[in-house]
Amino acid sequence: MEATYLQYLLQFKRPSGTSRGVLLDKETYILTVSENEKKGVGECAIFRGLSFDDRPDYEEKLKWLCENINQDTAFLKEELKEFPSIWFGYEQAVQNLKYGDSLYFPGEFTEGKSAITINGLIWMGDAGYMEEQIQEKLEKGFHCIKLKIGVDWKSEHVILQKLREKFSKDQLELRVDANGGFSKEEAVIVLQQLADLHIHSIEQPIKAGNWNDMAELCAKTPTPIALDEELIGIIDPEKKKQLLETINPQYIILKPALVGGFSGSDEWISLAENQNIGWWITSALESNIGLNAIAQYTFTKKNPMPQGLGTGALFVNNFESDLELRNELLWFKI
């Protein structure tokens, strides 16, 4: 088997706002493995500023993988444990090599027989821009919308109030993602305000790493809390178990590129289910290559909740997509 990689810079159609700042482009790496005239493609979807493996020797490790591609899988996994996005790219490429075409996890989804329900994502911006996005999602038939919050809570709160006035919790599920944007003291107030509006859940109300504060919030919260960034960089299975037992959140959110790919996600799901913690899967601004692989994997998990998968529509220079969105359902093109 041989392997090569290519750096690729995805350009946003419109600057996308989060509580960590505005994103203009997204760097990624495409890994190709080949054997006996067959090839497999995967995406090493590093997320600068967020990924545990955002470090100076990232590309050096990718080169190392290409040079050592024929080593034992267990050895590679151990060597790449601090590079979850590279391991994720490797897992994809090997799966694709096995099945060919643009298949990673063949089944009802890739046969076009079943789809995945997803949430509509609303990016931060002024109230007008956020309301414009919301209207567009509602017109497309979404019943679950996720809003990024934590930059201007006063305005964001007003938008949520307006939404709830128009749509009951039975008509529209509302999720919010704070990306760690609140202090613990602010979070206590915000959690109650969200509960008053029947918000489904809030992702990462406070910054990751404050296990005791997060545990206190989760124990008393009137609004379910989902851990997101909190999971990044936790490699050891015992530490994962310890985190979930200490914080005991209502949900965890899995971004395969950030938590060690398919195998890393499987590990978190198993631990969460043992503790009766809910979960769903979210993409992390991958290109259509990684997004396709994540969608196929997500379908195999049979989670009926709306999943947080993107549609690839954010970028002007994305690769051709194998997925298409019909209303709130993500289908595989056949």
**Tally of helical runs:** 10
* Beta strand count: 13
Rg, alpha carbons: 20 Å
Strand and helix order: EEEHHHEEHEHEHEHEHEHEHEE
Identify low-pLDDT runs.
none
**Could you say which overall geometry the principal axes of the C-alpha atoms support?**
globular
Separation of termini? 29 Å
Helical residue percent band:
25-40%
Strand count, sense and barrel status of the largest sheet are: 7 strands, parallel
Strand residues, percent: 15-25%
Major beta sheet, strand line-up:
5-6-7-8-9-10-11
Keywords: Metal-binding
Domain Mandelate racemase/muconate lactonizing enzyme C-terminal: 127-224
Pfam families: MR_MLE_C (PF13378)
Protein name: O-succinylbenzoate synthase
Task: Describe the protein.
- This protein is an alpha/beta fold.
- The protein is built from 10 helices and 13 strands.
- It has helices spanning 58-67, 73-79, 84-99, 127-139, 153-166, 184-196, 211-220, 237-247, 261-274, 288-300, and strands at 2-18, 21-35, 38-44, 116-117, 120-122, 144-148, 173-177, 201-203, 225-227, 251-254, 278-281, 323-326, 329-332.
- A 7-stranded parallel β-sheet has the order 5-6-7-8-9-10-11, with helices on one face. Strands 1-2-3 form a 3-stranded antiparallel β-sheet, with helices on both faces.
- Strand 12 and strand 13 form a beta hairpin.
- Helix 8 (237-247) crosses helix 9.
- It is globular, with a radius of gyration of 20 Å.
- The protein starts with a strand and ends with a strand.
- The model has no long low-confidence stretch (mean pLDDT 95).
